[in-house]
Amino acid sequence: MSLGQQLAPHLPFLRRYARALTGSQTEGDQYVRATLEAIVAAPEEFPREVDPRLGLYRTFQAIWASSQPEAFGAASASGTENEAIAQARLARIAPLSRQALLLTAMEGFTTEDAAYLIEASPDEVEELVAEALREIEQQTRSRVMIIEDEPLIAMDLEQIVRDLGHDVTGVAVTRDEAVALAMQDRPGLVLADIQLADDSSGIDAVKDILSEFNVPVIFITAFPERLLTGERPEPTFLITKPFQRSTVKAAISQALFFDEATVPEAAA
């Protein structure tokens, strides 16, 4: 099996991580493309001593780490306006603690694997994750709307949201109900299932909501590969069903991290 064939199944999930890391589908997918270009340009440098997924993420992490200082150094040196832009971008960079949290809680890597990926010790990874969790506890509380037609899943999501200290504005089970609820009580975050009770789409519901006002959105789906192709406008934050509580917690905190750090982009 060729290296490309070995890496192909892992690309959708690398896109998920990259989007969560950057807070942007466009920027995240650009980093994934850069990773693939680097592998194609120098396949002999690809880590062969580890599992292909680990090697893929390790290559991505190297490109991510090397690109940040250069980008901000150049921008901040060119004037007040560019320095302001650089500072705004700097606010969007997920610190190492959040990288460790995303790698373990969202991507499912072990502490040892995450240590390999970010070139740290397992003890350092555990401390970084603990630091990220402490930051989450200090995060500004928000008001969350849930779009989910399965009662048990909706109850679980509601409990997770409340455990994080956020309020729940309500639970909608159809597209029309979701739009009406959002207009009635504007949320600061939306958790949206893809397939809803009346065969309507959570994606369409979110599009309707975003046409009225900007709000960060986390989609929940049993088929993440369908929304991680990199071929069209797709979600920035995505949770896979069945989900772990830690995954939902990490996704919520990351979506709000970017919402607090920057002015939300206009809906596409």
Automatic annotation (TrEMBL):
Coiled coil: none annotated. SUPFAM superfamilies: CheY-like (SSF52172). InterPro entries: Bact_response_regulator, CheY-like_superfamily, PhyR_sigma2, PhyR_sigma4, Sig_resp-reg_PhyR, Sig_transdc_resp-reg_receiver. Keywords: Phosphoprotein. The keyword Phosphoprotein applies. Residues 143-256 form the Response regulatory domain. The keyword Transcription does not apply. The modification 4-aspartylphosphate is found at D193. This is Phyllosphere-induced regulator PhyR. The lineage of its organism: Bacteria, Pseudomonadati, Pseudomonadota, Alphaproteobacteria, Sphingomonadales.
